[in-house]
Design goal:
Strand content: under 5%
Number of helices: 12
Strand order of the largest sheet: 1-3-2
């Protein structure tokens, strides 16, 4: 189970009840969560919490050198990445992509103190790639970030562009930049932190408006199956700071 910190109450109650069973059952549940996620059942005798350690300097160096294979400045840039990444694998990966985009200038002998200046944190690293996308693509991704990590691109496009037909080519540059990834049912952000960084570009009023439009779109799409989206509707109406027009159950 990914992102337990966003799990609905029912899911968390099921986990708690399974942990409290009197007899043993051949079942393992593997979940991921942020450090801020705290539940009493995490201290249960049957629960084991694994705290990932930072990746090694050798791993960061190897990642950068693999990406910049053939560059005569790979060693120097790897040392710079080790200092910035601080053992965070996602940050190290983002640094590698950032440097890859600038490989032409690196190989041309651009001075490190001039052109190669790494963004100060992971959010700025993500934003450096996001800002290079076209305005229509950025606007669609902002709407998608309000929907969730996994999103329906047609719904996101309808929210920002109305009745205009959706063209999947609009998201090709975001896929190429690995801001989002295609899935069997649509798209998802590369990482929850990527979604968070893009969502943070929205002002409070913009967020309320997007959540209201998302709730309305869900109501329209699932008008005959409202129970399937009751929880999502409640969340988006709450974020829009407006009550549902009707009970979804």
């Amino acid at each position: 189970m990914e992102d337990l910190h966003w799990a609905d109450p029912g899911t968390l109650q099921i986990i708690e009840r399974l942990l409290s069973l009197e007899r043993d059952v051949p079942l393992m549940i593997l979940g991921t969560c942020r450090p801020s996620f705290q539940k009493a059942w995490l201290m249960h005798a049957r629960a084991t919490r694994i705290l990932p350690k930072p990746i090694s300097e050798a791993a960061v160096s190897g990642l950068i050198k693999a990406v910049l294979a053939g560059s005569d400045q790979a060693d120097q840039l790897a040392a710079l990445a080790i200092e910035k990444a601080e053992g965070n694998p996602l940050y190290a990966e983002e640094i590698a992509k950032f440097l890859l985009q600038r490989q032409a200038s690196i190989d041309a002998g651009a001075p490190l103190s001039g052109d190669i200046v790494l963004p100060t944190n992971l959010q700025n690293m993500v934003m450096a790639r996001f800002d290079k996308l076209g305005p229509a693509c950025r606007k669609l991704l902002q709407a998608a970030s309000a929907i969730g990590r996994r999103f329906d691109a047609e719904m996101a496009h309808g929210i920002v562009a109305g009745a205009a037909p959706f063209n999947p080519a609009l998201l090709e540059e975001a896929v190429a930049a690995e801001v989002i990834l295609p899935t069997r049912s649509g798209y998802q952000f590369k990482h929850a932190l990527v979604q968070d960084a893009i969502y943070d570009t929205l002002l409070r009023g913009q967020r309320r408006d997007l959540h209201a439009r998302i709730a309305q779109a869900l109501e329209h799409r699932f008008s005959n199956r409202a129970e399937e989206t009751a929880e999502a509707l409640a969340y988006h109406f709450d974020e829009a700071e407006m009550p549902p027009r009707r009970c979804p159950i």
